[in-house]
Design a protein that fits this description.
heterodimer, A: alpha/beta, Rossmann fold, 2 domains, 4-stranded mixed sheet, 12 strands, 28% helix, B: alpha/beta, 23 helices, repeat (chain B), LUD_dom (chain B), 4 iron, 4 sulfur cluster binding (chain B), 4Fe4S_Fe-S-bd (chain B), iron (chain B)
Chain lengths: 226, 474
């Protein structure tokens, strides 16, 4: 059914317009209102989104919500750090990771089985690259794409995320601004995931348990040189 | 769900006598309010953010039609579909039609209060589908065939023993003697069972915390990650959302998100905040091939122009429930329908009519804590009072109560009569109660004296004392 011919749609809009005390908006009215969407601006940004040492703040906030972090000099240090993280968590040396040239070109240890693609049942650990880190709440922001399937963030029990330190911003609004710069205004990836700590539930007697349906472990590797 | 709000008094009495429920409420009490306080103490701008949040929702509601059409255009541009549904029946039918179109059998669901409002699970089951709730709390109450008793912690009324009992009764394939005394064991069991549901589901149904007009994105927050698995793995995703969920921009969503989790659980942000825009794209390896958004009205456009329009700012954080002395005493089920607590006592009469729900606005002490903690500054006490007036004006309530209120109004509206009546009453009661200083029983006030004594008045009215003092000062 085309939008114009849908009687339910017409009735709902008419009721809304009646309640607002006006008829259908003129093009001019519509344009004026939608200016807010065409040129989005930040509302109040709290001081904690404007701290000087964003890296320290990011680490502190992420660890407050049970994420673990590690700091690496650069990409070449990633394979060893991942292998060590898996072994420390007593996970098998198998990894499902995003399809990223910077990762593919690394020297992965022979005893670590690395595959790309979407996550499937049985994958126990995944590796993804964050678009941004948001210091105010220790949040990593990941974008879905053919090379970075969203299932990687949810199916495995350990989620390892690479976060270049230069991608750490103070506030959510900074992350949106960077996204618009990267993809163009008004363009959204199919899924944007803000992830703040590992999966949890407190649904049984308010007992906090990690690893409800998503990953039980979230390990963030901060890269000094990207 | 058939409303049982008309028997609120009986529901509340039963709840007060329900020992497991009272134990659960005692466990619950204090937890969220303390965590909320701690989170707000870490964010000095919280009150200013409340003002910003209120302004965002007010702006969205002031041009709701324009923002909804913009949202729709963006969803369509991203390859999705939008369905406008005037009422619960239309929304149910649309969901069922879509599930048929998808050839669905198993349907995973991420907790959605709109899903509860339109009773989608019952409708899906009646149409031959198998809907499976995936939020742990919601899964538990689905097994028990109960309604949620709280809008963000649906199984808060249950003990771990009750949960274990339900798991044993329903998970018959598992060894009967397995240990299930600890929450961790129950979570592990539910995680394994629901993982299979995620992997085999044909359709995933989620709600939405917000809709973003700028981008056509739906926003969903969870702590478990169940909504993400629900929406990513099946062939089709259906988002059911009510029309007032729309906000203009990503920045506006960010401001609301700063308020939501802090007000709800005292978290700075929920673990998973997901912005979804349309179905799977060309070369994507995962995600649903079809993406549908149901826009539900169900009475909201009618509220928009009236005295309850501000209720449409509600972001469903549950803070008003967590801070309500009545909710804390009787729990959520006593309210009899989908939305409990102060927000429910305003919303329920607006959505399903005041006729069978006029007890709800009276289920409040009007202490004002709900408005004090509401991140959207919704004047809940004012609205509850308005509903009381509306109920009285439409002839609701038991005859003795109406007669009493009418008599009270008659006296209170005539200052000379009020002074005379209260002066006499106080003097007589003062004389009668002189000996004990209190009444254990009082004819006509047995409802009061059944559970507490009435202190005997000291002999003079407040007004008399006030006049005397003021006179002395002048």
């Amino acid at each position: 059914m085309t939008a114009a011919a849908d009687p339910a749609r017409a009735a709902m809009l008419a009721r809304i317009q009646g309640a607002l005390g006006r008829g259908a908006p003129s093009e001019e009215q519509r344009r004026r209102v939608l200016q807010r969407c065409a040129a989005p601006s930040a509302n109040l940004i709290p001081a904690r989104g404007r701290e000087n040492d964003r890296i320290a703040q990011f680490i502190a906030e992420a660890e407050r919500v049970n994420a673990t972090t590690g700091r690496l000099a650069g990409w070449s240090a990633v394979p060893a750090a991942v292998a060590e993280t898996l072994s420390a968590a007593r996970l098998p040396p198998r990894l499902r990771m995003v399809d990223d040239a910077r990762l593919a070109s690394l020297a992965w240890p022979a005893d670590l089985a690395v595959a790309t693609g979407k996550a499937v049942d049985g994958d126990r650990a995944s590796l993804a690259v964050a678009f941004a880190g948001i210091a105010e709440t220790g949040t990593v922001m990941l974008l879905s794409s053919p090379s970075s399937p969203a299932t990687l963030n949810f199916l495995p029990e350990m989620h390892i995320v690479i976060l270049p330190e230069q991608a750490i911003v103070g506030a959510y609004e900074d992350a949106w601004a960077n996204l618009r710069t990267a993809l163009g205004a008004g363009v959204m990836p199919r899924v944007v995931n803000w992830i703040t700590g590992p999966s949890r539930t407190a649904d049984i007697e308010q007992t906090l348990l990690l690893g409800a349906h998503g990953p039980r472990l979230l390990h963030i590797l901060l890269l000094a040189e990207a | 769900m058939q409303s049982k709000a008309h028997t609120f008094t009986a529901n509340a009495r039963a709840a007060l006598a329900d020992e497991p429920l009272q134990a659960a409420l005692a466990r619950f009490q204090g937890g969220f309010p303390v965590k909320r306080r701690a989170a707000i103490d870490r964010l000095p701008e919280f009150d200013a953010l409340r003002d910003a949040g209120k302004a965002i929702k007010d702006a969205a509601l002031a041009n709701l039609d324009i923002y909804l059409e913009q949202f729709e255009a963006k969803v369509v541009a991203a390859g999705g579909h939008v369905h406008w549904c005037e009422d619960a029946a239309a929304a149910r039918q649309t969901v069922i039609d879509l599930c048929r179109e998808a050839g669905a059998k198993t349907i995973t669901k991420a907790k959605s209060m709109i899903g509860e409002e339109i009773a989608i699970n019952e409708a899906l089951a009646a149409a031959g589908f198998t809907p499976i709730e995936t939020d742990l709390g919601e899964y538990i109450i689905q097994l028990r065939d109960e309604a949620p008793s709280h809008i963000i912690v649906p199984a808060v009324h249950l003990s771990k023993e009750q949960v274990a009992e339900s798991f044993r009764a329903h998970h018959r394939d598992l060894p009967a003697e397995r240990p299930l005394s600890e929450p961790q064991a129950m979570l592990d069991e539910a995680r394994a069972i629901l993982r299979q549901a995620f992997l085999t589901a044909d359709v995933g149904i989620t709600g939405a915390n917000m809709l973003i007009a700028e981008t056509g994105s739906t926003v969903l927050v969870t702590n478990e990650g169940n909504a993400d698995l629900t929406q990513t793995l099946p062939r089709m995703q259906i988002v059911i959302a009510s029309i007032e969920k729309v906000v203009p921009t990503l920045e506006d969503a960010a401001t609301v998100l700063r308020l939501l989790a802090r007000s709800a659980t005292g978290q700075e942000l929920s673990v998973y905040t997901t912005f979804t825009t349309g179905p799977k794209r060309g070369d994507d390896l995962d995600g649903p091939a079809a993406f549908h958004v149901i826009l539900l009205d169900n009475g909201r456009s009618r509220m928009l122009g009236g005295p309850f329009a501000e209720m449409l700012r509600c972001i469903r954080c549950g803070a008003c429930l967590n801070h309500c002395p009545v909710y804390s005493a009787v729990g959520g089920h006593a309210y009899g329908w989908v939305y409990p607590g102060p927000m429910g006592s305003v919303l329920t009469p607006n959505l399903i009519g005041l006729a069978g729900t006029s007890d709800l606005p009276n289920a409040s002490t009007l202490c004002g804590r709900c408005e004090e903690v509401c991140p959207m500054r919704i004047p809940l006490p004012r609205m509850l009072r308005q509903l009381r007036r509306d109920a009285f004006a439409s002839g609701g309530g038991p005859k003795p109560m109406r007669a009493g209120l009418a008599a009270w109004a008659f006296v209170a509206g005539r200052p000379w009569l009020y002074r005379l009546a209260t002066g006499l009453g106080v003097r007589i009661l003062g004389l009668l109660g002189r000996r004990h200083g209190r009444f254990r029983r009082l004819p006509g006030a047995s409802g009061w004296t059944a559970v507490r004594d009435l202190p005997a008045p000291a002999g003079r009215t407040f007004q008399a004392l006030w006049t005397e003092r003021n006179g002395a000062r002048q």
